[in-house]
Amino acid sequence: MSSKRLRNLLVHLDQSDRAPVRLAVAVSLARLHQARLVGVFGQRAQPRQVGIVATWPSEEYSDAARASKAAFERATSGMPEAKWHDINRGGDAELLRQITEMARYADLVVLGQHEEQARTYVPSELAEEVVLNSGRPILVIPYAGDFPHLARHPLIAWHNSRESARAVNDALPLIADCPEATIVSVDARYAEASASCARLAEHLACHGIKAKTEVLVVEDVGIMDMLLSRVTDLGADLLVMGAHGSIGLPFVSRGAGTRHIFRSMVVPVLMSN
User: Among residues 272, 271, 270, 262, which one has the least CA distance to residue 114?
Assistant: First the structure.
């Protein structure tokens, strides 16, 4: 294990079916890195209405919070620094604000992918809000699949930009022990992209990480789908990329790339801004 470790993790929890998967990933990482883990419970809810009197929290919210705390305590048994926190608010604006603020005090934030067809307990823009405004890296877990092993075969979406550099640096604790990483640049300028990928491979080698490189030359749209296709083709189990669409990929408007990946991701995604 690299000396670069995660020391303080945060995972968002709610009563959705995918919360146990997020928790399992976060607990696994916390145990691996001997890190503190904070479970933050927060979800949409209406106050209990009795006539004209509204009281908070509602019975449904309280029951969900108790169940979440019990599940967290079972999952973190033997982890003395594990802590469960209840946001204790049910409105979208307050959920986004509090989760984003708490994220600023973590090395890595574990969130879930929004699923359009399922009942949602948090605003659809939660992941985007946190990655763009917390200043911290986020690890987004897809709404389908289990991920008992993470970052054995990471794919790094690379461009010579601030966001990409930040994402790679933030991913180092996760990918430090991978057998090999793949650096993929999607660009219309082959020579520049190839040279940039080679420099990144040299940098990763300084951290003991072996990496191969490839440049996908494009002259039109569909870049993010091409990137996701390579994730599948290569059997990658983690996608690392800069957030907010200004990652330098051509033909991608500001923010569009981030949102597309959040909608279509098939493996966990580490994003930084």
Answer: 262
In this structure, are residues 33 and 26 in contact, taking their beta carbons and an 8 Å threshold?
Answer: no
Task: For 107-130, write each residue's pLDDT tens digit.
Answer: 999 999 999 888 899 999 999 999
Which pair of structure tokens corresponds to residue 204?
């990763």
pTM over 0.90: yes
CA atoms of 168 and 247, how far apart (whole Å): 12
Task: Give the chain's domains with CATH numbers.
Answer: 8-141 (3.40.50.620), 154-272 (3.40.50.620)
239, 258 Cβ separation under 8 angstroms: no
**SS in 3 state form for 157-191?**
ECCCCHHHHHHHHHHHHHHCCCCCEEEEEEECCHH
According to the model, what pLDDT value does residue 49 have? 66
The angle at the Cα of 27, spanning 26 to 30, to the nearest 5 degrees, equals 85
Regions in the chain scoring below 70 on pLDDT: 1-3, 49-53, 219-221, 244-255
How far is the C-alpha of 122 from the C-alpha of 16, rounded, in Å? 10
pLDDT of residue 89: 93
**Helices (DSSP H) in the chain: which residue ranges?**
19-33, 59-75, 92-103, 126-133, 162-175, 190-206, 223-234, 256-264
Q: What share of the chain is helix, strand, coil (3-state, %, to 5)?
A: 40, 20, 40
Provide the pLDDT for residue 52.
66
pLDDT tens track for 9-34: 999 999 999 999 999 999 999 999 99
